[in-house]
Design brief:
Length: 323
Amino acid sequence: MPRKKSSDARMFLTSEEDIEKRLDIFLSANTDLSRTYCQKLIHDRAVSVNGKEVTKVAHLLKENQDVSCIIPEPKNLEILPEDIPLDILYEDKDLVVVNKPAGMVVHPDETYSSGTLVNALLFHIGPKKLSGIGGVKRPGIVHRLDRETSGVMMVAKNDAAHRYLSNEIAERRITKFYKALVFGKMKHDSFTVDSPIARDRKDRKKMAVSNERRARSAVTHGTLLQVFPDPLTSYLKLQIVTGRTHQIRVHLASIGSPVVGDTVYGKSAENELFFRDHVLKRCFLHSESLTFTLPSGKEKTFVAPLAPDLERTLEALGSSGKT
């Protein structure tokens, strides 16, 4: 329960209900901040328990502990709106659902300062119509797609919707389906990869299947849709139960079936040959659909049609094989 609040700090006292509760979950539940942002505050040494800084997001709390959180002063939005075309699938007062094109980065970072989905959203929707929980560089962003991944994405338009959607994701109440083309022929018509994922110790820009304690659970279900003989490839429909960074790409590579065009987790020689012979110039991965209950209480499914370059790739491969 809240004990004290100021413009730059918030203090709470844990109760019996908070025993063994994770620190990041406790903070998110007792503030207007997303769990991801709370984790950032913890990593940034802005959170303390009984006067002692805690840097582990999974720190377990006890009863009658003082938890304090220093929230940085909000910064002026420096990301400029840009008139970039957007394929908006749905919009209401709480959220907008877009069909993100391949090649578009979701939010600005050290490498991409413009041309992102956020830049486009600021132009089409306006900075005052996006949630602020994601911070200066990520207004409205509840989840992400990789730069090369096309397809459906949802964006929050206010803080209440952001918290609601973030919680739906955390509680795994949002159904996500993808389409992917992988090298080789799958051994089974349906399969599940249940392998924890963590940051690759040798390359911090990559993720990897790991059995270390720091690894987070990750589950991917797959269904074989079609097999193409030349080159031998499999067209898949995938459902991710969890949403780890690069999850589909890491899981498929771990079972010997890397996504066609994946230059990070795939084989360069296979990709170079495929790029030479086909129209595809990126990773064949598409976010096909999202099904979830809107903040208004109505369940809806949003579908993004397969991107044109992916359609042309399938047509070039031919329709012979297993369907």
